[in-house]
Amino acid sequence: MIKVGDTLPAATLMEYVEVEGNGCSIGPNPVDVAKASAGKTIALFALPGAFTPTCSAKHVPGYVEGFDALQAAGVDEIWCVSVNDAFVMGAWARDQKTGTKVRMLADGSADFTKATGLTLDLTSRGMGLRSNRYSMLVKDGKVATLNIEGPGKFEVSDAATLLAQAKA
Predict the structure, then answer these.
(1) Which of 136, 30, 157 is nearest to 86 (CA)?
(2) Does the residue 5 lie in any domain?
(3) The Thioredoxin domain covers which part of the protein (predicted)?
């Protein structure tokens, strides 16, 4: 399992882009994790699935609302990672009104999630292999803090916890 001090796994996530520009075409675009995190401070949080109750009601909204405070604390970007496809993540971004505040990154085949060792098997609930709920502060591609939730919990991966860690 990934831990503080480790480098993020080499992986490509997908991001649905609504507006063409800056070398991105409309639709799913690849995001090389190593290149995208290089030289930046990233507030990364991951969750079991788009449009699920806790994720939609608490997790994503907390980061959208906390955007300004996180930026003031030195965070360059906020990433939301979920084992969903880029089209679903794009629709969820519209629904959650993440705009340019939170990058909604799809880990469709769970390659990134498997590489972190933070998988959650929800096969019995008809959802297959998903990501555990967690957050991390990433500095120049390395994990600076890591907050992993217990089963069914939402206590340490919220935006307020990561904000406090970014300020420390």
Answers:
(1) 30
(2) no
(3) 2-168
